[in-house]
Predict the structure.
Amino acid sequence: MSKVTNIIAAGLGGQGVLKITDILADVIFSAGLDVKKSEVHGMSQRGGSVSSEVRFGEKVNSPMVPAGEGDILVVLDDSQLDVARPVLKDDGIVIAPADVPTDKLATPKALNVMLLGALSAKLPQFDESLFLAALKRAFPEKLHAANEEMFKLGRNQ
Amino acid sequence: MKLLASGNEAVAMAAFDCGVTLGCGYPGTPSSEILDEFSKLGGNAEWAPNEKCALEVAIGTAYTGARALTTMKHVGLNVAADPFFTIAYSGTPGGLVVISADDPGMASSQNEQDNRRYAVAAGVPMFEPSDSQECYDLLCEAFALAEKFRSPVLFRMTTRVCHSQCIVDRRLADAPLAKKPASFTRDPKANVMVPAFAKLAHKRLRADLHTMQSLNEEGKYTIEKNNSSELGIITSGISYQHVLDAAPEASVLKLGMTYPLPLETIGRFAAGVKRCLIVEEGDPMLFEQIMAAGIKVENKLEEFRFGELNVSRVRKLIAKDTTPEPAGAPGKPPQLCPGCPHRKTFEVLRDLGCIVSGDIGCYTLGVMPPFSAIDSCVCMGASVTVGLGMRHSLPENEARKVVSVIGDSTFLHTGINGIVEMVYNRPATGHVVLILDNRITAMTGCQENPATGRKLDHSPAYAVSLENIVKGIGVDNCDVIDTTLETEKFAELLKQRLASNDCSVIIARRPCILAVAKMAKMGKN
């Protein structure tokens, strides 16, 4: 079986968790790899815990990351680290708000984009231009310049 | 055309590309996005007041030879079960597909019933897609089968299939099928289910199911992987994807059409392996049918009947490993949004010590602290009638505390009958029904409903008046109040109504803050 890479984003409802995985899945799709993305909607909104998973490789079967097999976990709120931790492998990478220059956030809402930038630095197989293009597709034009700035702050920290 | 799509989006694309004339449903997680997406593609879609109405409108459309799709969550099919069982007998000339989106694990539901049982119970053929591509491909097959046999088809999805995104080849995107021309041909023997005609229809249905089984044996809907002869796994739906990861060495028989089953194919597969295990989420539905056919297969242990399966659980299921599964710290539960208009309402209900008969919607979150102000929740519409039952039997001092709480969309769904029951079989102490009118179907993602004044696509529509409905039925009082702005006044009014023997309705009206933001974004008031 070919190697599948597992990325998880976790946070609270309203933080834009799903936006991170939407953009990541778009990047992987545009790079020509197989990709699946999974999350649960509904009651999990309303400020509760939200997590979303992306798996990619030559061929992906289950859309859900098996416990203990996550390669990278992005948490948007530190409280969610303990909640999501079991999905990560022992030597998995955690990307948390402390890893990015949050003091430079234009708005708290852009934390997801800044963390996406940090995540992109851990995925060198995907060119930065793929991320920037997917980021543009995901947001209205008026946010493009600000998003690119936040993304680069996260990527180049 | 290849693209990333959720199962729900893929179903919408297939419906559009298959020339569906009308999509009709009631919102319910995890099915809600299908009709919105179908509408955005240019399809004609509508929200009905409930699933029974939705299925019946779809049946009428399919009676004219046109293709019709109806969507609902698993519990919605309980509401639509009445027409579902009889349309299985008569069928429709136009393709009719019923989507049931089940929620194993109850991410957003009150139970985890396995609606594959409905296919068996009603005698309706069923497809179970395992990813977005199969959602697209099998929905196309479902319409073809429906028309070939003049039979409704149950299309059973689950939360993970509905909401996971995968790469989909939308192969008919460039050449979608045209909508079928609609006309009505009188055929009472086929369409009027009086006993004399229904007896014939039932025999035809059972004969058709035999023919469908033979068709299913041809392998068009089945994937067979012949690997190890030690372990063979028979599976369907999302479980198939988990099996591929959990047991790459196993032989696998993956069924796309899970009723009627291809029992000859299954028998041959089972005979070719030493251990033949059924891996299915939820009820042992495949297992029971296969065993009943005299084919020896192994069922999963009872532990694995609960909740969703995943790769780790399938590994344990195969190994018969019942050690507890590792769990992380509990997540933060959902709660009523800051600024939610229900907050003040529940504060008052809590402070007055009411016994609150609740219903299905965001406001069920009123059960959580700091409100702790919901005392029962059964199903859509049950708040009114369950509250009445309590009123009938409790001693007077307790009966006077009972309040039924129901949302606007839920009231229109199945709450109206409860108001009729209330004025017809009045409890001695009267009753108080609180309609939490936040002007939207909020919990499922802010869909329109018959009282919002907008259709599914947010274009203007007639707005049904909740006041006129309850006044027309004959309640003694109907007040409208904004409990956020007039909290004290609301508390006084509620106390007064509880003290009287009146049958009262209080409409707590204030728009959902999420809906206000969403509508503003779309430029709708």
Observations:
- The domain at 222-319 of chain B is CATH 3.40.50.920 (Rossmann fold).
- Chain B has a mean pLDDT of 96.
- Chain B has 21 helices and 18 strands.
